[in-house]
User: What shape does this take?
Amino acid sequence: MKKTSILNKLRSSGLRPTKQRVEIAKFLYSRDKTFHFTVESLGKYLAKKTTTKFALATIYNTVHAFKKAGHLSEVHLRGKNNTTYFDTNISNHHHFYDSQTSELIDINENEIKFDKIPKSPNGKTIKNIEVIINLKN
Amino acid sequence: MKKTSILNKLRSSGLRPTKQRVEIAKFLYSRDKTFHFTVESLGKYLAKKTTTKFALATIYNTVHAFKKAGHLSEVHLRGKNNTTYFDTNISNHHHFYDSQTSELIDINENEIKFDKIPKSPNGKTIKNIEVIINLKN
DNA sequence: GACATACTTTAGAACTATTATAAACTTTAA
DNA sequence: TTAAAGTTTATAATAGTTCTAAAGTATGTC
Ligand SMILES: [Mn+2]
Ligand SMILES: [Mn+2]
Ligand SMILES: [Zn+2]
Ligand SMILES: [Zn+2]
Assistant: This one.
């Protein structure tokens, strides 16, 4: 993703393109594959790959702002150290989870098909379905 | 579940039947339906239903001991307030999740059937599959 | 460019779920 | 009854996350 489209992405979401946001967006969206991360891991990557300083609160703020703007999703999974995973794949999709490495791998929505699903309880409807396939070696 | 089988359950797991463990086991296993709870909520229920005192650490210890003994399972879901859910249903099964109320509802394993599942990556095999059906009103 | 305004970053404090510590207490088996 | 091992407890420590309020920055207008 190039600089101008990064700026557009931010501006069209009502987010001022600050140095920190632009760096984070470049880091997250200049890649082909889905990227799964925790705030802590993102901070480490940013420290390694950029010379910009990021307060931890800024990473939290930015990740939440991106999520609110629809540019990130939060994975509804409780990882090893009570960690929250974020995901650059914002479509409905599923995951392999390797608890040994704490790694998530995407499964496209169309790679899982259901034969049978229970009907939702008492006046509720289905918002979405999340499948986690836990892996072992 | 009656007193003697509570004691058997504890003893056969190598857990001494202390006052606190017996109360918690009675509370958790003297019911027909699955019970989902957080440590905090369990503490509140115990305070309401019993006259025994429970240090918070004891509830954590006991829940973990029961989990280790195979009498409880932990739900791999990140709830609203970063809460950990435990489950008296120790079989492989799935859940409805109502994020409005933070409530879990069991789905038996045989109520969900897959038509298509991706093959696991690179030398890994499937340990188990967890489905969360998120509900809305 | 200079200015006013609203927004953003920041360091540090605060908060909350959970785990660790170590002393007092209880269960168990001899 | 006694000693050893296990358990509970209050409290401190940890760790992920959110809050605060002061300093800094982006933006629109002149
Ligand atoms: Mn650096
Ligand atoms: Mn009471
Ligand atoms: Zn994903
Ligand atoms: Zn359940």
User: Anything to note?
Assistant: The CA atoms of residues 13 and 68 of chain B lie 9 Å apart. The mean pLDDT of chain B is 95. The longest helix of chain B spans residues 56-68.
